[in-house]
Amino acid sequence: MDILYQNKFLILRTARLQDCEALAAVLRPEDRAELAASHPGQSPAELLKKFFISSRHCFVLEYQSEPTAVFGLAPEVWLGRHACVWLLTGRGVLHIPKTFLRLTRRLLADAFSQYEELYNFVDERYAAALRFVQRLGGRFDGRFYRTPSARFLCFTFRRK
Length: 160
What we know:
By secondary structure, the chain is of the alpha+beta class. It has a single domain (3-158), classed as Aminopeptidase (3-Layer(aba) Sandwich), CATH 3.40.630.30. It has helices at residues 17-25, 29-38, 44-54, 97-111, 127-135, and strands at residues 3-6, 10-14, 57-63, 66-75, 82-89, 117-123, 139-146, 151-158.
């Protein structure tokens, strides 16, 4: 197990598939709703497994021994310069907002050692996620896609 950060209540480490299954059980309602809108008919556990398998790098943040967030990078091609970045959160993230933001910034900075650009889409109704992307330095470029129940806005992070 590769531990990247640890203190009294937190551990950030390389994720295992069972971390995704555990996070699916404690997903925040907003994350659960976003998954349902973006992938109708698929369960959060199925989607997390799929995201984990497609990711070259995947990390879990545990708060008080419970998965609080899972972060992944899925490159377009093995040696490419672009990767899809994803992050799903559990209920514990509400107890550590500043630390969560700081650790996410660090993960993004590390990702830029390999990729020039990171991208994904976020449900335009998920106000907290939109603010989070902006606080991390993400930019919305006007691209979007629609599902039957929502519109998803494209965001990118670019290496400086």
